[in-house]
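Below is a filled-in request sheet from our internal design queue. Each sheet records the structural input a requester submitted and the sequence that came back. We keep these sheets so that new team members can see what a complete request looks like end to end.

REQUESTER: design group, bay 2
PRIORITY: normal
MODE: inverse folding
CHAIN LENGTH: 259
BACKBONE (tokenized):
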């Protein structure tokens, strides 16, 4: 099995978000895929197999479970396929079990991903949110993840929540966001429920962050920066119930797994 390690949402290694990408001729059993994901110990390992019609089927695993959507691992997989397997292709279609078909394209030196937008179900701000993050959010929204909105970039950058306190809040993960100084918005994303204390750069949660800031700023194009220690940036374009996520990626390694 050939495996690549790619840093997503960056143009240089040692930044962005690491993802392992396994390109296979046929599907192994889930026990083996989970074992590979635990061995890699990245926030995501992606597995892909080419279908007879030229499309690809795609699945994503954290060190503890399979997830329904992952942006940075999809970007990493697209980078690998465009550069090593589908050099002449301008688009790739990924079939997924929980998120439908994902259409990926090239736009100059950027990779463009077409993802479903999340809903913004406003929920009450609670003392538990304030205690978990160390600051009281001005607003909160819930879909797959919990989105907490703050008034300044500094609050988001200087936040030090404990995984145990974040794990008690609603949602698979907890995203915190604020208006940015050099970007339209900044964010961070904490996902201890699936074994990831803080995800360095997360494409899927921007399917919620993008629509929020698009509505608040009355813009259809949003520049976003995820302010983790590694950091990464992306461009978001809002298209009704879809979000186009554009970013770069950098190859760190490629290897053969001894399985």
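RETURNED SEQUENCE:
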């Amino acid at each position: 099995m050939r495996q690549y390690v790619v840093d997503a949402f960056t143009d240089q290694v040692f930044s962005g978000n690491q993802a392992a990408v396994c390109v296979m001729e046929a599907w192994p059993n889930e026990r083996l895929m989970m074992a590979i994901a635990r061995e890699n110990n990245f926030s995501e390992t992606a597995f892909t197999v080419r279908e007879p019609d030229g499309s690809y089927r795609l699945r994503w695993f954290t060190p503890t479970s399979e997830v329904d959507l992952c942006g940075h691992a999809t970007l990493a997989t697209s980078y690998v396929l465009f550069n090593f397997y589908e050099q002449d292709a301008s688009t790739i279609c990924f079939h997924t079990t929980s998120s439908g078909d994902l259409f990926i394209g090239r736009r100059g030196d950027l990779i463009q991903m077409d993802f479903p937008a999340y809903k913004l179900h406003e929920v009450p701000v609670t003392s538990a949110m304030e205690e978990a993050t160390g600051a009281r959010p001005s607003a909160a929204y819930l879909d797959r993840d919990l989105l907490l909105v703050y008034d300044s970039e500094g609050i988001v950058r200087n936040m030090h929540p404990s995984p145990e306190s974040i794990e008690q809040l609603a949602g698979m993960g907890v995203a915190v966001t604020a208006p940015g100084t050099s970007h339209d918005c900044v964010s961070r994303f904490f996902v201890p429920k699936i074994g990831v204390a803080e995800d360095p750069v997360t494409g899927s949660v921007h399917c919620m962050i993008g629509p929020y800031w698009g509505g608040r700023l009355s813009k259809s194009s949003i520049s976003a920066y995820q302010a983790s220690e590694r950091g990464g940036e992306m461009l978001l374009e809002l298209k009704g119930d879809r979000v186009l996520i554009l970013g770069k990626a950098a190859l760190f390694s490629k290897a053969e797994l001894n399985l």
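SHEET NOTES:
- The first strand starts at residue 2 and ends at 8.
- Residues 6 and 251 are 5 Å apart (CA to CA).
FILED BY: M.R.
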